[in-house]
Amino acid sequence: MGSFRGMYMKETVISIVGPTAVGKSLLGIEMAKRFNGEVISGDSTQVYTGMDIGTAKVTKEEMDGIAHHMIDIISPDESFSVADFQLHANKCIDDVLRRDKLPILVGGSGLYIQAVLYNYNFSEQRRDESFTKRMEEMIKLEGPDQLYKKLKEVDPVQAAKVHPNNHRRLIRALEVYETTGMTMTEYQQQQQLESPYNPIIIGLDMDRDVLYDRINQRVNHMIDTGLIEEVKNLIDRGYEDCQSMHAIGYKEIIQHISGNQPIEYAIDDLKQNSRKYAKRQLTWFRNKMNVQWYKMEPMLIEEKIEFILKDLAGILEEKSN
């Protein structure tokens, strides 16, 4: 196919998006094999070391020799904002392009993918550390409910995207409002959605019932392969109260380990939360980004992947002429 750097005015970056358990990782690996690419994880939780099963990280065997980036780069007690993610991921993309390879951004964290592809400027709005500390103290004393109620009043659109237990994003949304008078939603809408790259965004979807069954099966597999032991190990290492442990797959199991829920209820919660997250992912990508969608069928996965790869070859050839 030739070099992906200098082929166009802007360098090509492929992104594979869609809900959890739809088959993004497999497609990314096959795409990297076909087009001399490397995979950059677009998942907001796979950056953490030791959080493997609950984040559904690809194994070394599954990678099949394809280089993967943005995985296992920080410990679970380190803060890692979307701005941090953007900075690291853009460096990875530039490195891949410098080596004349195709960057393939794979993931389901909508804001993170969009921030990387469309160069959100997070640096202009600086952090107010005193405000953050006050809000953290309030959460410790009273819980997050009052702050979440405040966010719903001032910015219901952002509140719908933020879980009440995601303290960092909750505080950040309120901080932007308090320090600028502008809601986070308004701030994000002002971002110029012109990409520094030539982004080709491929979306994978699946019939709802089939997708939800795959999600349920994935959760069962996580339990069978040691998710409870993984969470216990993270707790033993002192990470229980870290923001990373509020992620789906960890917060539910913590409820069981702490004695608040029987394991069957925790597993049911994990499945339900994963299904809800899949629905939110699809809503985000359909409303926020220009995506070329493909419907996946588990029984025809190889044929579907080959179809997408042929489509992509045609798109790349067309843009190179």
* Helix and strand pattern: EHEHEHEHHHHHHEHHHHEH
Query: In this structure, how is the largest beta sheet organized?
Result: 6 strands, parallel
Number of strands: 6
- Rounded mean pLDDT score: 90
Any idea what the shape is? globular
Helix percentage: 40-55%
Q: What gap, in angstroms, lies between the N and C termini?
A: 11 Å
Largest sheet strand order: 3-2-4-1-5-6
**Beta-strand residue fraction:** 5-15%
| Poorly predicted residue ranges | none
How many helical elements? 14
Radius of gyration: 20 Å
Class by SSE composition: alpha/beta
Provide key terms for this protein.
321 residues; alpha/beta; 9% strand; globular
Explain what the structure shows:
This protein is of the alpha/beta class and 321 residues long. The protein contains 14 helices and six strands. The protein has helices at residues 24-35, 60-63, 82-98, 110-118, 129-142, 145-154, 156-161, 167-180, 184-190, 208-224, 227-236, 251-257, 263-288, 301-320, and strands at residues 12-17, 37-41, 68-69, 102-106, 198-205, 292-295. The chain has a six-stranded parallel β-sheet with strand order 3-2-4-1-5-6, sandwiched between helices. Strand 2 (37-41), helix 2 and strand 3 form a beta-alpha-beta unit. Helix 3 packs across helix 4 (110-118). The longest helix has 26 residues, at 263-288. The radius of gyration is 20 Å and the shape is globular. The model has no long low-confidence stretch (mean pLDDT 90).
